[in-house]
Specification:
Blueprint lengths: L3 H31 L4 E8 L7 E8 L6 E7 L14 H9 L2 E6 L16 H16 L4 E11 L6 H7 L5 E5 L5 H15 L4 H19 L4 H8 L7 H10 L5 H4 L6 E8 L5 H10 L4 E10 L12 H9 L9 H15 L1
Parallel strand pairs: 3-4, 3-5, 5-6, 6-7, 7-8
Antiparallel strand pairs: 1-2, 2-4
Helix pairs in contact: 2-12, 5-6, 6-7
C-alpha cells in the first residue's frame, strides 16, 4: 500500500517537471505567434546584367493572385540581408494588408550573395534598384503602375536618383534619409559626443581628426596614407576607406530638385545620425508632393526610444512582439500612404 507521503512527493515531482515544460511551451507559442506574419515569402533571383545576380525575397499578400502594387526596399548602411534580420517583416505585413507586395535583396557579399557591398558607389546602388524595378515589372503578380520605393538612412542618396529617372513611380517612402555625406558625418560625430557628455577638449580633438580625414578624402589619399596621417582606427578598414572615398561627395540635393514622385518623409525625434532639420528643409524645397510625419520618441532606426539601447527588454520585445518595437502609427501610416497612392492612380 502506497503511503500518503509517497503520493505527495510524487505529485510535487510531477508538478515540478510540468511547470518548466508548460512555461517552455507557452514561450514557444508566444514566439511563434509574435513572428508569424500575414504574408507569403518567395525567394527570388534577379538577373543583374554583367554584375552578380541579386538574391532576394518577394513578400506577397497572404491571399489572392494579384496583380499587387509593389514596394521596393532600399537598405541603409552596413551588411544588410534581404529581411534585415527580420526587421522588415512587420512593414512587409503592413504593406501586404494594404494590397502590396514587397521586394528586397541581400547586399552584395551578404548572406551568401556574390560581390562586396563596400565596393559599390551610390550610383551602383541606384542602378541596382532600377534593375530590380525592371525585373519586377515583368512579373505577372506585380502591377507596375502601383510601384514605389522604401528606403532608410543611406538610401537617402539612392531614392532621389531613382525617382528622378523613374517619374512613373507612384511613391517614395524615405525614413530618416541622409542628404549630404560630409555634413551628415559631422552631425553624427557631434551628436554622439554630446550624447556621451564629452568634454570640450575631447570634442575639439574629434573635430580636428575629422577635418584631417576630410582633407585626405579630398586629396584622394590611399588607405596607407590615411593610416600614416590619422593612425589606427578599429572602424576604418581598407575596404571601408575605399567605400568612403568613393562616396564622400554624395549629395541628394540635385536629384531632389528634379524628382517629382510623391514622397512620405518619416523623421525621428532622437536621431543622432541625421540632421533632421536639414533633411526636412531639403525635402520641402524639392518640387515633389510631400507629406512629413515626425515621431518624437523614435531613434534613427525608427525604434521607440525605450528600445534604442540593447538590453533584456529590447531583446524580449524583438523576439516575442517585434511589431511593438516601432512607434504608434509608423506601420499603419505607411500602409495608409501606399493605399492612398493606389487610389489616386
Amino acid at each position: 500500500m502506497k503511503s500518503p507521503r509517497g503520493r505527495a512527493i510524487r505529485r510535487k515531482i510531477l508538478i515540478g517537471g510540468l511547470v518548466p515544460l508548460l512555461l517552455a511551451l507557452a514561450g514557444f507559442v508566444a514566439l511563434a505567434w509574435g513572428n508569424t506574419y500575414d504574408l507569403r515569402e518567395e525567394r527570388v533571383t534577379i538577373p543583374n546584367g554583367a554584375a552578380p545576380s541579386l538574391d532576394g525575397v518577394l513578400a506577397l499578400p497572404a491571399t489572392g493572385r494579384g496583380p499587387y502594387g509593389l514596394v521596393v526596399f532600399v537598405h541603409g548602411d552596413g551588411p544588410v540581408d534581404a529581411t534585415h534580420d527580420g526587421f522588415y517583416r512587420p512593414m512587409w505585413e503592413a504593406f501586404a494588408q494594404a494590397g502590396y507586395a514587397s521586394l528586397s535583396w541581400n547586399k552584395p557579399g551578404v548572406a551568401g550573395a556574390a560581390g562586396d557591398w563596400l565596393a559599390q558607389s551610390m550610383a551602383d546602388r541606384a542602378r541596382e534598384v532600377e534593375t530590380a524595378l525592371t525585373w519586377a515589372g515583368s512579373r505577372p503578380e506585380i502591377d507596375e503602375r502601383r510601384t514605389g520605393l522604401w528606403g532608410a538612412s543611406q538610401a537617402g542618396w539612392v531614392l532621389p536618383e531613382v525617382a528622378a529617372r523613374r517619374p512613373e513611380l507612384r511613391f517614395v517612402i524615405a525614413v530618416s534619409p541622409t542628404v549630404n555625406w560630409l555634413r551628415q558625418g559631422r552631425h553624427n560625430l557631434l551628436a554622439e559626443l554630446r550624447a556621451q557628455g564629452a568634454s570640450p577638449t575631447r570634442i575639439r580633438a574629434a573635430v580636428d581628426r575629422s577635418d584631417r580625414t576630410r582633407a585626405l578624402l579630398g586629396a584622394g589619399a590611399t588607405f596607407q596614407e590615411y593610416r600614416a596621417a590619422i593612425g589606427d582606427s578599429e572602424d576604418m578598414t581598407a575596404a571601408r576607406w575605399g567605400f568612403v572615398l568613393r562616396n564622400h561627395r554624395a549629395d541628394a540635393t540635385r536629384a531632389l530638385a528634379v524628382a517629382r514622385v510623391p514622397t512620405l518623409l518619416l523623421l525621428a525625434g532622437h536621431d543622432l545620425n541625421v540632421d533632421v532639420a536639414e533633411t526636412e528643409a531639403a525635402y520641402r524645397r524639392a518640387p515633389a508632393p510631400l507629406r512629413v510625419v515626425h515621431f518624437p520618441d523614435a531613434d534613427h532606426a525608427m525604434l521607440r526610444r525605450e528600445f534604442a539601447e540593447p538590453g533584456l527588454w529590447t531583446t524580449l520585445t524583438a523576439l516575442f512582439a517585434p511589431r511593438d518595437l516601432f512607434p504608434d502609427g509608423y506601420l499603419s501610416g505607411q500602409a495608409a500612404f501606399v493605399r492612398d497612392r493606389a487610389g489616386q492612380g
